[in-house]
Each structure stands twice: as C-alpha cells, then as structure tokens.
Amino acid sequence: MTNYLVLVEGVADEVFMNAYIKKLGLEGVVSIKSCDGYTNIKKQAFINILQKNTDNGGRNLIVFDADDDCQSRRQELMVIKNEINVDFDLFLFPNDADHGALENL
Fold first, then answer.
1. What's the rounded Cα separation, in Å, for the pair 95 and 105?
2. In whole angstroms, what is the distance from residue 103 CA to residue 88 CA?
3. What pLDDT does 105 receive?
4. In a 3-state reduction of DSSP, which class is residue 5?
5. Which of 29, 53, 55, 94 is the most buried (most CB within 10 A)?
6. What CA–CA distance (Å, rounded) separates 60 from 88?
7. What SS3 state is found at 24?
8. What is the pLDDT of residues 49-100, one digit of tens each?
9. What is the pLDDT of residue 1?
10. How many whole angstroms separate alpha carbon 3 and alpha carbon 28?
11. 80: phi then psi, degrees, rounded to nearest 5
12. Burial class (CB in 10 A: 0-12, 13-18, 19+), 25
C-alpha cells in the first residue's frame, strides 16, 4: 500500500486534514505535516521530508490555500516544485479552482 504525505500550511489545516483522514479511515496510510506557510516548502527540512517519502515509494500531496489568486498560487508552487526537484501533487483550497482558503469551506 502506498503511503501518502500531505503537507499543509498551518495548524488549522493540519487539524482539519487529520479529522478528514480519520473520517475516511486512512490513519496509518496518510501522514499530515504542517510547514507554517507555503514558502517554507523550500526549506531543506521539508524538502528532505518530501524526498524521503518519495524514496520510500510514497506519494506527496501539497494542500495549501489559493488565497487571492488560484492560478498565480499554482504557478508559484510549480516554480518551487521545479526548484526543489521533488515530486508532489497539488490541491488549493477551497476547491482547486477559485481563490480562497480553508476557512472558506
């Protein structure tokens, strides 16, 4: 079974995602980590966490807020993805298409 690492921006996101994962019955398969802001995924500690999960056959998912402009945030994160050279899928709150944040749910 593939292990999933979900990297979120803050504590509220981590609490929400942990509750959602529990509701789905996926504890033990999905791990949630907070990075305290989207730009912090460029820090070596988070690069190492993501790379280790990939090296162990896991998949990485970044779940961040779209904030004011979903497309701009997506482009920013894709640039970072190329810079850090670590594979991840991306979902932007509230619905992966519109501006907003977790709190908009």
1. 9
2. 23
3. 74
4. strand
5. 53
6. 5
7. helix
8. 999 999 999 999 999 999 999 999 999 999 999 999 999 999 999 999 999 9
9. 58
10. 8
11. -60, -40
12. exposed
